[in-house]
Amino acid sequence: SSLAHCDRAIALYDSGQHHGHVRVLGNNQGISAFNYSAWNLCLLGQPDAALVRAREAVALARGLDDPFSLAHALHFETVVHWFRRDVGAQRERAADVIALSEMQGFPLWLGVGRAFHAAARVVAGEMSEGAPIAALEALAITARTFAAANRGRHAAEGFDLCDLTHCQVVGKATRETERAAQSTAGLVLHDGERVA
User: Fold this and answer.
1) Are 75 and 109 in contact (CB under 8 A)?
2) Measured between alpha carbons, how far is 102 from 84 in angstroms, rounded to an integer?
């Protein structure tokens, strides 16, 4: 399995001997082994072990004083927080990726850091101050479509939707979001005959 290969790579890795390979391979193979091991553990339903492994990658990268490998490891930890649905930790770690990438000039990690930071803000129900009304209307239609398509999701518990992130998270309503909801009242997205 992939996890077994990652574990073997971790066991064989010696930072003193192998860190120099970064100049040839482009990234630190020990950090990559920890990173992919963390993702494997997430996908195998072991989120706590995944977080430990991701943090080991970050600690290794900090110890090597290698900014690119650190950005790589911080990104993987960000994704582990996303798998774990820990929005606060995802946002915090993504902010670290952004700050390091801006300082070091890493456009790839800057882009993915911004994407995961924005995703954390959306899941937290945040909307930028002064967002265009069209964006708020699109959000209202999307939320309404999700609610309509998922009626009965929690029927066994006696309700349709919950207020957790796997259903929907709605932040505090503002005058603008109320206006967007009212101006799009009843509108949902359709895929042929069914609600999308």
Assistant:
1) yes
2) 26
Q: How far apart are CA 55 and CA 51, in angstroms?
A: 6
**Sequence letter at residue 94:** A
Tokens, residue 80 = 């582990």
Q: Which residue type is seen at 171? A: G
Write the DSSP string, 155-177.
GGGTBS--SSTTT-------HHH
CB-hemisphere CA count at 13 Å for 3?
A: 12
Q: Which tokens hold the place of 171?
A: 């932040």
* Six-digit token string for 99: 């700050």
Q: Which amino acid is at 137?
A: E
Residue range 87-146, pLDDT digits in tens = 899 999 999 999 999 999 999 999 999 999 988 887 776 766 677 888 888 888 888 888
Q: Which residues contact 30 (CB under 8 A, 6 or more apart)?
A: 9, 10, 13, 15, 18, 19, 60
Report residue 107 as tokens: 């456009």
Q: How far apart are CA 124 and CA 81, in angstroms?
A: 14
Dihedral of the alpha carbons of 173, 177, 180, 182, in degrees to the nearest 10? 20
- 117-136 burial: b if 16+ Cβ within 10 Å, else e: bebbbebeeebeeeeeeeeb
